Amino acid sequence: MFSTPQVNIYAADVARSVEFYRRFGFEESFRTPREGAPLHVELKLDGFTIGIAAVTSAVADHGLDLDLSKPGRGMEIILWTDDTDAAFASLVAAGARVLSEPHDWLGTLRVAWIADPDDNPIELVERRS
Fold first, then answer.
1. Which residues make Cβ contacts (< 8 Å) with residue 34, sequence separation at least 6?
2. For residue 33, is the peptide bond before it cis, meaning its omega torsion is within 30 degrees of 0?
3. Phi then psi for 13, rounded to 5 degrees?
4. Could you report the per-residue pLDDT of 32-47, keeping only the tens digit for each?
5. Do residues 40 and 52 lie in contact, with contact meaning Cβ atoms separated by under 8 Å?
6. Which strands sit side by side in the sheet containing 97-105, from one edge to the other?
7. Quick one: DSSP state of residue 17?
8. Residues 103, 62: contact at Cβ < 8 Å?
9. Contacting residues for 46 by C-beta, under 8 A, at least 6 apart
10. Model-level pTM?
11. What is the rounded distance in angstroms from the CA atom of residue 116 to the CA atom of residue 92?
12. d(CA 129, CA 127)
């Protein structure tokens, strides 16, 4: 039901973080928006993907309660799925805490967030045609 895991890092300055990870050999594979200050950039190295997301976008666009001054709240695990709504409902029914209800984003994605038992954020994401 899940595939293509990656890690997102929330950043106060996405461009600065992108430049930092490029020093390790990561190469950019996705950016939004294409022009201007990025809200989200994905970098790949040897089959591993790091997403760098603007903390301001996570709060404003998705309603996440993020504070980079708190330890452990600057990262999340992403799990791609064929059905965000069904996966979300199943996990919430099993006791996962809701961080952000399923919603459409960027016109092509369906996203939602839950918390793991230690309150770490997990994003569920589906690509829509």
1. none
2. yes
3. -135, 95
4. 999 999 999 999 988 9
5. yes
6. 27-32, 40-45, 48-54, 2-11, 75-81, 121-127, 109-115, 97-105
7. H
8. yes
9. none
10. 0.68
11. 11
12. 7
Tokens of 72: 């452990």
Look-up of token digits 């770490």: 120
State the Cα angle at 57 between 51 and 60, rounded to 5°.
Answer: 150
DSSP string, 54-108: EHHHHHHHH-----TTSTT-SEEEEEEES-HHHHHHHHHHTTPEEEEEEEEETTT
Residue with token string 């990262």: 75
Ranges of the chain whose pLDDT falls below 70:
70-73, 117-118
pLDDT digits (tens, 9 = 90+) for 50-70: 999 998 888 889 988 877 776
